[in-house]
């Protein structure tokens, strides 16, 4: 096969290349980058120099420059699967998932048995919410070469789909192949937790911490378990070790629930007066409750006046007579194999596992797009508001979670908040009609819940009375619950959380 014309251009001699190669092979990436840049200026058509630059800059987290140099190398030798693979990794680090997908597919087209490329393709598909395709890619990678990481990644995608039993099987297989796989132990524990099997979940967290006492996820999960168990002082220790996600808010929560009010106020004031924007809904919940409890000014400004930011609207495609979308949603809820997540706050009902809007069913996908539009309408309605809820409104609309809740006679959901949300909401598909009281089955929101310590009972509440096809959106800082209903009917809604993309915890790549 004839070489590209550029390959006949002047090339550096072995003597000229030796210093660059020596630095690169010694792992001195910054020095190798500098030396390669000097040489490539003299020999601009040298494949290996662009390759060295790309790999060095990748290792130095200079991802934009690395992508540029990988691309230049590929213009010289386009049929190099390893380079397409490396470019895919770099583009993934830049969150350019569609381009990364194309790079991995080129690598696979050139080398069908490139199992790492199949695995990484699964990762970028998973990050785009294309779970069915991700599972297919992960399975293909495992069919070529079975390894612990392949089983782990497949387990994460299956868990996102709500396929907890199957996810558990793959996490166990990853551990069987590599017993010291700390992340697999932790994710196995999370699956057990989602099934309500806390005994096995805690064992997995301890197994993780035995392998790595500083494992962020396992420390966080233990902290979460302990604060739910009311062992607040112990929980703080684990949360502070985790430094993960909203650990600071949860540690402050434990201090408040333990009624260490002086310590709570000192820590809260330190946060309020710090340099960080007031962008934590959970801190708003705590700050507002403390202010109402003790009659002081609420100084946290994510959304001080949450009641003013409750939004209710009818979705035409669901509210219209004989709505096909409503029929499709109920059909998929009733007839699709969606696993159920253990949820202690639900009485006489159940909640789906996984992320509903990332499932393949067209009805859920369509509703997800409608809800995204309603988020934009929400932002426009409250434009100009002097709070971070609106000023720092997410630029990229991504659901951290979405699920259905089905309640039967006597069913309700206890007062709670969505700690990992920004804006939360629900779309109502079925509501009880035979009511003894007009508020039965309604949505109640307020400033108190979760057995927070109270100095008095003067905590206001508001009520939204939805109709079928309505959407209700509200700041995730507000407590909310379902008012119990007594009729022999069902109440079905699809709930969801939105959070800024930068705040979402994303799994590691393949």
In short:
With 510 residues, the chain is of the alpha+beta class.
Write up what this structure looks like.
- Keywords: TPR repeat.
- InterPro entries: CHP02466 (IPR012668), TMTC_O-mannosyl-trnsfr (IPR052943), TPR-like_helical_dom_sf (IPR011990), TPR_rpt (IPR019734).
- TPR repeats lie at residues 47-80, 81-114, 148-181, 182-215.
- This is TPR repeat-containing protein.
- The protein is α+β, with helices and mostly antiparallel strands and 510 residues long.
- The protein has 2 domains: 5-166, Tetratricopeptide repeat domain (Serine Threonine Protein Phosphatase 5, Tetratricopeptide repeat), CATH 1.25.40.10; 309-503, q2cbj1_9rhob like domain (Jelly Rolls), CATH 2.60.120.620.
- 51% of the residues lie in helices and 12% in strands.
- It contains 21 helices and 10 strands.
- The chain has a 7-stranded antiparallel beta sheet with strand order 1-8-5-10-4-3-2. Strands 7-6-9 form a 3-stranded antiparallel beta sheet, with no helix packed on it.
């Amino acid at each position: 096969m004839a070489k590209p014309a550029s390959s006949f251009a002047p090339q550096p001699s072995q003597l000229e290349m030796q210093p660059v190669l020596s630095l690169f092979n010694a792992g001195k990436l910054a020095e190798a980058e500098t030396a390669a840049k000097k040489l490539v200026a003299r020999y601009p058509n040298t494949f290996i120099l662009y390759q060295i630059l790309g790999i060095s800059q990748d290792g130095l987290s200079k991802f934009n420059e690395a992508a540029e140099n990988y691309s230049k190398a590929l213009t010289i030798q386009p049929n190099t699967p390893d380079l397409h693979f490396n470019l895919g990794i770099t583009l993934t680090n830049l969150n350019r998932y569609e381009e990364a997908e194309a790079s991995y597919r080129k690598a696979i087209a050139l080398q069908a048995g490139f199992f790492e490329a199949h695995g990484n393709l699964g990762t970028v598909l998973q990050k785009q919410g294309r779970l069915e395709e991700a599972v297919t890619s992960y399975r293909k990678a495992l069919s070529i070469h079975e390894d612990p990481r392949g089983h782990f990644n497949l387990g994460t995608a299956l868990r996102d789909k709500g396929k907890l039993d199957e996810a558990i099987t793959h996490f166990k297989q990853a551990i069987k192949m590599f017993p010291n796989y700390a992340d697999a132990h932790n994710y196995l524990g999370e699956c057990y937790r989602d099934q309500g099997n806390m005994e096995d979940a805690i064992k997995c967290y301890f197994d993780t911490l035995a392998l790595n006492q500083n494992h962020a996820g396992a420390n966080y999960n233990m902290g979460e378990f302990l604060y739910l168990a009311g062992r607040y002082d112990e929980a703080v220790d684990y949360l502070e070790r985790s430094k993960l996600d909203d650990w600071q808010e949860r540690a402050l929560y434990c201090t408040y629930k333990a009624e260490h009010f002086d310590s709570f106020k000192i820590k809260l004031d330190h946060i309020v007066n710090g340099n960080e924007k007031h962008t934590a809904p959970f801190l708003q919940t705590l700050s507002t409750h403390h202010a109402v409890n003790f009659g002081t000014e609420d100084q946290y400004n994510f959304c001080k006046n949450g009641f003013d930011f409750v939004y209710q609207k009818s979705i035409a495609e669901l509210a219209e007579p004989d709505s096909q979308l409503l029929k499709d949603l109920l059909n998929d809820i009733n007839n699709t194999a969606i696993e159920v997540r253990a949820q202690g706050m639900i009485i006489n009902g159940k909640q789906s596992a996984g992320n509903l809007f990332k499932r393949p069913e067209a009805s859920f996908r369509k509703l997800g797009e409608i809800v995204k539009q309603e988020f934009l309408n929400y932002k426009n309605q409250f434009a100009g508001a002097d709070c971070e809820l609106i000023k720092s409104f997410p630029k990229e609309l991504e659901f951290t979670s979405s699920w259905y809740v089905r309640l039967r006679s006597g069913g309700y959901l206890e007062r709670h908040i969505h700690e990992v949300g920004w804006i939360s909401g629900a779309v109502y598909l079925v509501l009880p009609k035979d009511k003894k009281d007009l508020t039965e089955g309604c949505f109640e929101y307020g400033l108190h819940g979760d057995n927070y310590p109270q100095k008095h009972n003067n905590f206001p509440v508001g009520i939204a009375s939805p109709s079928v096809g309505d959407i209700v959106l509200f700041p995730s800082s507000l407590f909310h619950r379902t008012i119990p209903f007594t009729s022999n009917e069902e109440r079905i809604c699809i709930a969801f959380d939105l959070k800024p993309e930068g705040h979402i915890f994303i799994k590691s790549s393949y």
